[in-house]
Amino acid sequence: MKKIKYISIGLLAAFFMGSCEKMEVDYDAIPVGDDMAQFQIGHYTPVASSAENNIYKVELDGKLLANSTNVLKYYNTIPGAGRFYYSKPGKVNLKLYQGTDLKLVFDQDVTLIKGKQNVIIHDYNANPLILERNFDIPYPLDPSKATFDTDTIAYIRFVNLMYESEGHPTAMKLQYQYQYTLHPLYTNADKDAGLIPDGKKVGDATGDATKSAWLNLGTPVAFGESTGFQQVPVKKTTYIAQGAARIDFRIVVTAANGGVPGETVMDDVDWLLKINGKFYTDYWTITTGRYTTHYFAGIRSKATFARAYSYAEH
Fold first, then answer.
1. CA–CA separation, 95 vs 64, rounded Å?
2. For the chain, what is the total number of helices (H) and then of strands (E)?
3. Are residues 122 and 150 in the same domain?
4. Phi and psi of 188, rounded to 5°?
5. Which CATH number characterizes residue 44's domain?
6. CB under 8 Å to 268, separation ≥6 — which residues?
7. Considering only Cβ atoms within 10 Å of each terminal Cβ, which end of the chain, N or C, has fewer?
8. Does 88 share its domain with 140?
9. What is the span of the domain harbouring residue 174?
């Protein structure tokens, strides 16, 4: 019986060894080198904010990129933060199908370039914009400006995609501005200077809501242009943590950049952009160390459209 048992075990071992020798693991992956085009697709055509305007199917040269399991929503981007589709550089055909009935709404040829880029659809009947990515650089850019106790930085890029009316992009150059809280927490610098009152310590909230002056984020940009990623101070509201803080934003358009008092801007003093009769202002909670794009998209004369849509890049 023992001999039969051992013979059986030997036969089984030989069988599995033979099976392993025949099985080849193939990962079927294609390396993405510097000579490839890596891209994200942004859907920023001025449409009503409703699910029926989502893109339920995306094709590149007839190959499926996205379907109902990865919907390209209105005023959004796929495949997601830090991820890219890839293709050989050159001319390709891009198709977008809207709604669950898969209505073909976009069918255009696109010329992709080497490296990372954003392919931005802003008009179903026009070629998309191609924006090169410019933030694949070591963090921080400048160690001397990176971390000051609780004061760190983030990077924000503004893209002008505003329409004046349906089918008519704005002719104005938009100056994006930001404002931040100067001193939300007590710091080691406060301690060294003897500025922390009794009963308080480093990291406690100061209760001081004083904000900075309005600061320009880059330079004014025309339709389809980007400021590139700009450093923005983020005074954290939590101590010794990555943290985040509220940053306020607005848009200024001077006469030199196409602003018309009472028509496109509020007055001739602050030159604040008007959206549906009111000056535009917004705020976002910005996380330290992150890269974020603010796509300013929609139609200026419609309150439900023109606004900044924030997309976390990295």
1. 10
2. 2, 20
3. no
4. -65, -35
5. 2.60.40
6. 255, 261
7. N
8. no
9. 136-313
Instruction: Answer whether residue 24 is part of any domain.
Output: no
Give Cα separations from 299 to 54, 62, 104, 177, 231 (angstroms): 18, 32, 23, 20, 28
Tracing tokens 């190959």 back to the chain, one arrives at: 63
Q: What percent of the chain has pLDDT over 70?
A: 83
Structure tokens at 41: 């697709």
DSSP state of 185: B
Instruction: Give the span between the Cα atoms of 291 and 116, in whole angstroms.
Output: 15
**Residues 160-167, mean pLDDT to the nearest whole number:** 94
Q: What is the pLDDT of residues 196-205, one digit of tens each?
A: 999 999 999 9
Contact indicator for 248, 178 with CB cutoff of 8 Å: yes
For residue 32, give the 3-state DSSP assignment: coil
Give a yes or no: residue 18 inside a domain: no
Q: Are residues 241 and 306 in the same domain?
A: yes
Tens digit of pLDDT for each residue in 220-275? 999 999 999 999 999 988 887 778 999 999 999 999 999 999 999 988 888 999 99
Q: What is the pLDDT of residue 30?
A: 58
For residue 229, give both structure tokens: 């990623």
Q: Is 33 helix (H, G, I), strand (E, B) or coil?
A: coil
Phi, psi of 22 (to 5 degrees): -85, -25
